[in-house]
Amino acid sequence: MSNEVWVWAEQRNGQLMGVSLEILNTGSQLAQKLGREVVAVLIGYQISGLAAELVAYGANKVYTIDKPELSLYQSDVYAKILADLVQKDEPTILLLGATNVGMDLAPRVAAKLKTGLTAHCADLRIDDVGGKPLLVADVPGFGGNMVVSIACPERRPQMATVRPGVMERPSKESTRKGAIIPVEIEIRDKDFRARTVEIVEQKPEGAPLEAAEIVVAGGWGLKSVGGFKFIEELASVLGGSVAGTRPAVDANWVTEDRMIGSSGKTVAPKLFISVGASGATHFTTGFLKSKTILAVDQNPKAPIFEVCDIGICGDVAKVVPCLIGEIKKIKAG
Amino acid sequence: MNIVVCIKQTPDPEHFSKITIDPTRGTIQREGIPSVINPLDRHALEEGLRLREKFSGKVTAISMGPPQAREVLELALAMGVDEAILLCDKAFAGADTLATAYPLAGAIKKCGTIDLVICGNMSVDGATGQVGPQLAELLDIPHITFVSNVEFRGRRSLVVKRELEYGYLKTEVELPVLLCVVKSINEYRLPTVIGIMEAMRKEIKTWAACDIEATSETIGLAGSPTVVTNIYERKVERKREILKGTPEEMARQTAAKLHELGVL
Known about the structure:
The complex is a heterodimer of chains A (333) and B (264).
Chain A: E1 5-9, E2 11-12, E3 15-16, H1 18-34, E4 38-44, H2 48-56, E5 61-66, H3 75-89, E6 93-97, H4 100-113, E7 117-118, E8 123-129, E9 132-141, E10 146-151, E11 158-162, E12 179-182, E13 195-201, E14 214-218, H5 229-238, E15 241-244, H6 246-250, E16 271-275, H7 281-284, E17 292-297, E18 310-313, H8 316-332
Parallel strand pairs in A: 1-4, 1-6, 4-5, 5-12, 6-11, 7-11, 14-15, 14-16, 16-17, 17-18
Antiparallel strand pairs in A: 2-3, 8-9, 9-10
Chain B: E1 2-7, E2 9-11, E3 20-22, E4 27-29, E5 35-37, H1 39-55, E6 58-64, H2 70-79, E7 83-87, H3 97-110, E8 116-120, H4 131-139, E9 143-152, E10 157-164, E11 167-174, E12 177-181, H5 193-201, E13 204-207, E14 227-233, E15 241-242, H6 247-261
């Protein structure tokens, strides 16, 4: 029984997914609290370089399963590999990133191991629950209106998934040392019941939202000015990314991959600016961990003003151009 | 083709902000909150019905829930499914996703040889997306999530498009399989008046734990590896500095503050 903290590191097309680094960071912190090591499990093809990266990002140990047939995500085989490794080594915690792949893999592995899995956690910590140090996960429920704390007292490992952009990334230190351990496994053709044959990637325009340091999101209130022109200008002058609410997406002012909220993206930038959005909980839950929140809306009773650091109540058509002007002045001078 | 569609009743997402916590018991207060069928489940039912139209066969809708969950099964019958089963038993209550998958698996096994199980990719309340894959594991069949397109090559071979954040994976599989579908897979039909009338003549079977040979260690609160240790309404700690003045003045103050914060 290793009682280590394990992290499943996802790679796609030869690159580590950002969320894998984020959960590695969380895993490191949890491991430290428990006095244990943090271990990454990496499945794919020609992944030794990525394994070294994981060490640089803080993994004490990396198990690699490297085979050409595993280059693309294969749900049956990946689940079997991960579950078998876990059963042999008995880590106390297993974290996965809640990407579309992670969300496919995690529950299958949890069911194989008959253990508990908590999805898309906003916070993970070790708490004393009934005298035992347990992993406690905070999960937003009902669109973000509620927070539910969940633990897995008996079964092991305690499993959780975390969405991209929720946790912080670790620093990369090439001086870090860690063991990279290739694992030999036997897989047969019939193990691949559902076989992934192709990946088609459609890169989004612009930088990914989760990586942006400044995000400017617009809501239905932009209707009065005919759309997102001001949002784009404000984002541009700040060097930030554009995002929107569901109504903004439905109005075609912004694409669905830029939607913030419980059914969209979660972001935690240095600065989040909400313009013309009233602040429904299923929207605000998508950016509550931002360092600073600025809200602009014309309705003084809008709930967005409950969750902001700085609030401007006024006509978006007047306020935003003034703000753009003032920011330009400061940047020039 | 024997198809099972798993569906669920959830509180209406339009009313989520009205859901509160009972401070004395620490439980969720759902009274007075209207219920709906989980939105993605309509797409799951639609996909099942289309495949029955193409290949002929039977579509059975199953739901685990309190007696009130009959409403979603009535909707499924009105859309045109052949059979509807409600898994209802106090012993099922308090279940997490694994303890939900167990009774569903038990019920499906009781339905005979199934070729295809279809679920919505996730529900609007818990939004875990876990029950589908866990159910597939218990049924020992492969599963595919985020399914946006299904193409049959012959009667038992499928090519499935599963959505990634940007793009998709193309996956080949043979029946039996469990598919979790997303919104873009189809546009669902609404029940017709005739459908509703025919539905009223169909009986909804109600099965309890004893009917599906469910063991107490696998269902309900006792069968749930996860436990809720606390529930609270989200409180947000923020400065809430609401500025005053003309747009120009407020803009100037804001820009100055942002400069202080070092974000400019």
